[in-house]
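Subject: sequence -> structure tokens, single chain

Hey, anyone have a minute? Need the predicted structure for the following. Not urgent.
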Amino acid sequence: MSLKRFAFPISIAAASLLLYSAAPAFAASHVTSQAFNRSHTTNQNAHRRVQRGEITAVTATSITLGSTTYTLAANVSVHYHEYSLSVAEIPVNTKAVIFLNGSGVVTAIRLSSDPSLPAHPVLRGTITAISSSSITIDGYTLPVSANVTIKSDGQTLALSAIPANAQAIVHLNRTGTVVLILLTTDVQAGIQGTVTADTPTSITIGTTTYTYAPNVTIRYRQYTLTPSEVPVGSQAMVTLNSSGQAATVILLTDSSLPNSSTVQGTISSINGTTLTINSYSLSLAANFTVTYEGTTSLTNTVTTGETAIARLNTAGQISQLIVEVSGNSSGSN
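Reply:
Had a minute. Here:
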């Protein structure tokens, strides 16, 4: 009988012990659930830090995508392909991707189109109009840099010396300004083919080798290259001077450099001063910076697996890396 009386209190005690020990487990589960909810909310917020849509309005301090207006950071960057634009140059009724910091302020804008600028920074055609500050070619009226270089047959000309209806190759810089005009009245102005060999003093197109002129100009899109940097296998257009030397080399393809001055993708490796993103192994510029959450610093760290936008200088080096928040994508383009 005493055993039965003793057994009952033990059962109550055991039940109490079970309830007592279960409470922290429930609390821990509740905390975990709260943590998940906070994490889920954070992920949703991060998810919204990239927005895509059509620009319906722009002011000096804000941009509107669809019906939603966002504040612009004082140092907001605006890009269209290779071009860096000002806020005043943003066209309405065009699609864009905007990047927001943790406060919801726009720190970067990437335009998908701009009717005032060609998609490619190299134009070839007839110059139909010239003024002291602009030229019209291939339907685009473009500002001319005060330091523009104009070449014909290897010689440098003044803007006013360009003849009417001249055939030319025109190069634009990152702001859409003409920085180089090559008049294609030179001897054999349109040699085009595959680069089969390249040395510091000559280039071979197909089976024909041409000596580089002393002041040769070599360009691939917005990049300025040296003779030893021309990749074999690329497609090129060569203009010769009256001496038969390669006065200009315009690369049409280059597997070692991206088409645009901005590259977006996942960082797959970091090796000293070289970073690989989206299959391109690119050198870091001496003044390389990292932007994270709208803050730019020389000391911000970067790790493999992160998604980023790399901005390249005219030498094809990474000058700035904008690290995106994990899970950034929203809407449709």
